[in-house]
Specification:
Layout (H helix, E strand, L loop, with lengths): L1 E5 L3 H12 L3 E5 L3 H8 L10 H10 L3 E4 L2 H7 L2 E4 L14 H13 L4 E5 L7 H12 L6 E5 L9 H6 L3 E5 L3 H10 L1 H4 L4 E5 L1 H31 L4 H9 L20 H14 L5 H25 L6 E5 L14 H11 L3 E5 L4 H7 L6 E3 L12 E4 L4 H4 L3 H7 L4 E4 L6 H6 L3 E3 L4
Parallel strand pairs: 1-2, 1-4, 2-3, 4-5, 5-6, 7-8, 9-10, 9-12, 10-11, 12-13, 13-14
């Protein structure tokens, strides 16, 4: 099947590459000439396991290519996935200007039936605005459908999640659109994946509702972590007990310094705003958001309490990305934590296997910040090690070597990646969250 994907950002690039890998002929739109050249050479701008290899393979086999010609892209296919950005404004509302622009461009160019698919995360009933825009700007009275097919891609697992979905949500208003979706996702349904078919506005809500529920779950275990720490209980034991209940599950019950990234923070704020537009107060989501914001300040307070005076101390930080296996630093806890430590006068030695270049754009090297390409090199003569991101390479380290490199064997772990008993036996002052 021929498929057009508009937008080669995080969602668009993964969607286009995976659809090509399923055997489709995919044309993906990228506005930036610089990025376009790199993409056609198989160079992915995002760090995501398996994406580069899959991108190279499908480009070499001629199953996908990139263009900045919107007319060509709209003519190419009757199936158009819209994967443009919906950034959040100061009010909390999603900025839908790119959605509107794409809708106008499709309307002006279309000469036959089009299935316009919302892949971007959009507020409920955005499909009605797209339909109205297409009808206004279309040069002919042509048949078209607007459908919702929200993505559920975790950064660091995006390719895996796309190729191994536990369900595929689609919101449609015609059998014609449903038939097209069944053809696109046939490779998955043949393996038993459920195609969850609903009305378009319900699909739009499902995306926000899912992410907001996960945010609540994270905030809940972090709330319990504060109680566990004061009551001298290991929060991991509590999380294991809660997660053993099949109605709840263990995923997203890891205590730490809270969530970040481009999805959960943005989506929970947007969902609160959507509720307000309908005269509702999603107080539960406000509480979850506040708990998450407070995690960063509480962790900073812990650092200051344990190290007393931060001024002129050499502090190593491992992990800058908001989560492992990505170079994404959007709304990362590291930003607030490093701002606070640097503001107290400490000298920071930073290491992250993927996100350092992006972090340098916010925090260039100066008298207080130095970046390292080796995690052990960053530890030399440090007064403390702070762990912010739970990269697997941090779990598999030489603890004896770490101890020899540091002035003081102090580790403040924001992600609970080590066992306290082991660290104590190795002679570390080890502090974690909720334990």
């Amino acid at each position: 099947m021929k498929i057009t994907v508009i937008g080669a950002g995080y969602v668009g690039l993964v969607t286009a590459t995976c659809l090509a890998d399923l055997g489709n002929n995919v044309l993906c739109v990228e506005k930036s000439s610089f990025n376009l050249e790199e993409l056609n050479l198989g160079m992915s701008p995002i760090c995501e396991p398996d994406l580069n290899e899959m991108l190279h393979t499908n480009l070499d086999e001629g199953k996908m290519r990139f263009t900045n010609d919107m007319d060509e892209a709209i003519d190419f296919s009757d199936v158009i996935f819209v994967c443009v950005g919906t950034p959040q404004g100061n009010s909390g509302k999603a900025d839908l200007s790119q959605i509107e622009e794409v809708s106008r461009q499709i309307a002006k160019r279309m000469n036959d039936y089009k299935l316009i698919i919302e892949k971007s995360t959009v507020p409920v009933n955005t499909h009605k605005l797209i339909k109205r825009t297409v009808k206004r700007y279309a040069r002919k009275d042509l048949d078209f459908d607007v459908a919702s097919n929200p993505e559920f891609l975790r950064e660091g697992y995006a390719v895996y999640d796309f190729m191994n979905p536990n369900r595929i949500v689609i919101g449609i208003e015609s059998e014609r659109a449903g038939k097209i979706f069944r053809e696109i996702y046939k490779p998955f349904t043949e393996k038993g994946t459920k195609l969850f078919i609903t009305k378009t506005p319900a699909a739009e809500i499902i995306k926000y509702a899912s992410n907001s529920f996960l945010a609540i779950k994270i905030s809940y275990i972090n709330m319990l972590a504060d109680l566990c720490e004061k009551a001298d209980i290991d929060v991991n034991m509590v999380a294991d007990g809660i997660g053993a209940d099949k109605r709840i599950g263990r995923d997203f019950l890891n205590a730490g310094i809270g969530y970040g990234g481009s999805c959960l923070p943005k989506d929970i704020r947007a969902f609160i705003n959507i509720a307000e537009d309908y005269g509702l107060d999603f107080e539960l989501l406000r509480a979850a958001e506040k708990i998450n914001k407070d995690r960063r300040k509480k962790f900073l307070d812990k650092v200051e309490e344990l190290l007393w005076i931060l001024k002129d101390k050499n502090i190593t930080v491992w992990g800058l990305a908001f989560k492992p296996d990505t170079n994404d630093i959007r709304d990362a806890p590291s930003i607030d934590i490093i701002n606070g430590i640097m503001g107290a006068g400490a000298k920071l030695r930073l290491y992250d296997p993927e996100a350092a270049e992006n972090f340098k754009k916010l925090f260039p090297e100066n008298d207080f910040i130095t970046y390292y390409e080796d995690k052990y090199e960053a530890l030399k003569n440090s007064d403390a090690l702070i762990i912010i991101t739970e990269w697997n390479e941090f779990r598999e380290v030489d603890l004896d070597r770490i101890k020899k490199l540091m002035i003081l064997p102090i580790i403040i772990d924001g992600r609970n990646i080590y066992e306290p008993a082991l660290m104590e036996s190795k002679g570390f002052e080890y502090y974690s969250v909720g334990r």
